[in-house]
Amino acid sequence: MTIASDILRQTPLHALHLELGGKMVPFAGYEMPVQYPAGILKEHLHTRDSCGLFDVSHMGQAFLAGDTSALERITPADVAGLKEGMQRYGLLLTQAGTIKDDFMFSRLAGEADLYLVVNAGTKEGDFAYIAEKLADVAALTQRPDRALLALQGPLAEEVLERHSPGISELTFMKVTRARVAGAPAIISRTGYTGEDGFEISLEGGDAERVARLLLNESEVLPIGLGARDSLRLEAGLCLYGHDIDESRDPAQANLMWSIGKRRREAGDFPGAATVLGAPAILRVGIRPEGRAPAREGTEITDKAGRVIGKITSGGFGPSLNAPVAMGYVESGFAADGMAVDLLVRGKAMPAVIAPMPFVPHHYRRPAKTNPK
Amino acid sequence: MSEVRYTDQHEWIRLDGDEATIGITKHAAEALGDVVFVELPAGGKTVSAGGEAAVVESVKAASDVYAPASGTVTAANSALEKEPSKVNEDPEGAGWFFKMKLSDKSEFAKLMDAAAYAKYLETL
């Protein structure tokens, strides 16, 4: 089925994507660039070596006002304990405790409201769910008028500092209001590539001017959705609708780290009893031994040929110059180094269960200070 | 003197005497993007017109390469296994996939010539 292009939504950078030669494809109801003329391989490697600019304005931005801690009704993350100026990763859970979405939430300094960013393909459902489950205590305001840019890579700090003096002081997972070339922005030191970088929320009307300024810097190339996917896969990060969905819970997805300690001890979230038990299947990293990528849906078998799982994301990792994948296997096969087979085009291809991330993260964490 | 024909699935086939060389067109290589893997048929394999003969994978996805005509595979371009990027660099030259002996040359004659293929691309 082809979705008619006239019903696809466009981000504030649509004209710029076309001008840059972006190859536009339908994605989560939007017309988005899958790649630019440089191509996915070069865009991927450039982001790891230098700096890439991504348009992620299709993602859902919103503010939650009122008793924001009530968000804990539907997420196992520690919301109440989030300090000012910090962003955190959380899972939105169904009433059965399975994963409805993954999202980021931030507490800006001096502000009562919580700033939320959810996935593009799930935003309508997420926002309706949050509004409904918190209707008695909090109000959600969607901000489809805002744009979101991601500036990622080892040179992102140097580039952004030129247009937002002082921003280099922000460390990993911190968030602040700041100006970029005069435009008011919410900037967090986060991303979806495994590299250091920033996510920059702007008023829609400022987005194109700011994007052009950043792209004018010699270090920066525009990066499409294709490289965004290969970068996040090498970084071991989940893609909602593929690696996690409503059929998986946080334990199976190996995302227990996103559940706050206080929450784990209290067990006060949907499906806590199940999630706190031992999962029968687990999300793992997989390295095929040959050159052939194993794609989503590929069956995983043990060495005797019994099916033990399935790949949920798979492709070629440009930085590794080798195929990489993630998927779910029976827990007994989830140990690093376990030899398995992947059924690619009817043939058993050897592979091993491997630790993630496949490419080390390069986050700019605060310097360790002596506690005493 | 060799002659080149094209399929609506974007393979090219060049006939030199009895032997034909097969690859994917420039249009197909551009549409696929960066090629990272190819799976080639073994020598001696018989293929039929329109049947799966090879696989080409870009960062994005896997695609089948179909045999433009029936026959027996005589050679594969094993250089592509180490350097799949040749498919993007020179799709209609060094990026060839395999060679085969045709069992029925009339199948070749029915395929599009360069002008017809160019016209076909305009309709896509």
**Level of helix content of chain A?**
10-25%
Count of distinct strands of chain A:
19
* Largest sheet, strands/sense/barrel of chain B: 6 strands, antiparallel
Structure classification of chain B? alpha+beta
Low-pLDDT sequence parts of chain B: none
What can be said about the biggest beta sheet of chain A? 6 strands, mixed
On the 0 to 100 scale, the average pLDDT of chain A is 96
Portion in helices of chain B: 10-25%
| Quaternary organization | heterodimer
In which order are the strands of the major sheet of chain B placed?
Answer: 1-2-3-9-8-5
Strand content of chain A: 25-35%
Return Rg of chain B in Å: 13 Å
If you compute it from the alpha carbons, what radius of gyration of chain A comes out, rounded to the nearest whole angstrom? 21 Å
Low-confidence stretches of chain A: 1-5
Question: Any overview of this molecule?
Answer:
The complex is a heterodimer of chains A (372) and B (124). By secondary structure, chain A is of the alpha+beta class. Chain A has helices spanning 14-19, 40-49, 123-133, 156-163, 204-215, 225-234, 261-266, 272-275; strands spanning 23-27, 30-35, 51-55, 60-66, 86-93, 99-107, 114-118, 138-142, 146-152, 175-180, 183-188, 197-203, 220-222, 281-288, 299-301, 307-317, 322-330, 339-344, 347-354. Chain A is 18% helix and 33% strand. A six-stranded mixed sheet of chain A has the order 10-11-12-9-3-13, sandwiched between helices. A six-stranded antiparallel barrel of chain A has the order 14-17-16-15-18-19. In chain A, strands 5-6-7-4-8 form a five-stranded antiparallel sheet, covered by helices on one side. The model of chain A is unreliable at 1-5 (pLDDT under 50). Chain B is α+β, with helices and mostly antiparallel strands and 124 residues long. In chain B, 23% of the residues lie in helices and 37% in strands. Chain B has a six-stranded antiparallel sheet. The longest helix of chain B has 9 residues, at 114-122. The mean pLDDT of chain B is 95. The chains are: A alpha+beta (372), B alpha+beta (124). The A-B interface holds A 34-35, 39-41, 44, 226, 230, 291-293, 295, 315-316, 318, 323, 345 and B 33-34, 36-37, 39, 55, 57-62, 81.
